[in-house]
Amino acid sequence: MKRIYVDENWCLGCHLCEYYCAFANSGEADMVRALGGKKISPRIQIEEGSGISFAVSCRHCEEPLCVKGCITGAMTIKDGVISVDQSRCVGCYTCILSCPYGAVMPAESGVVQKCQLCLENSCGKPACVSGCPNHAIVYEERTL
Fold this sequence. Notes:
The protein is an alpha+beta fold. It is built from 5 helices and 8 strands, in the order E-H-H-E-E-H-E-E-H-E-E-H-E. A two-stranded antiparallel ribbon has the order 1-8. Strands 2-3 form a two-stranded antiparallel ribbon. The chain has a two-stranded antiparallel ribbon with strand order 4-5. The longest helix is centred in the N-terminal third of the chain and has 9 residues.
């Protein structure tokens, strides 16, 4: 299965992936209208420190603790992609506490959000990957 991988050696820490993610999941056709003057709520987060920057997003684990810990069944895995049904989420944040990568986060609405590989928005492929100016974020299949 294809997943998002980040090479911290190439990440500039520019946060463009966060903006592309927020725009892709906004439902708006215009980036300025979608993000202008607003605090963005991306599903990918840049972590920085000690001269290293890297993007953190869902790794779509084979045995996801977030799915196992979800008390309402809002978190599911299908064809290797972990998704959250926000209409079923009650905002208990068990999935946030369960994720070892810190890739599940609160949404503005109070429920949770996470990377769903842009499969359910108009992009159809991860917007963070296509927007990364240094190609530090890739979407590919790797054998482990």
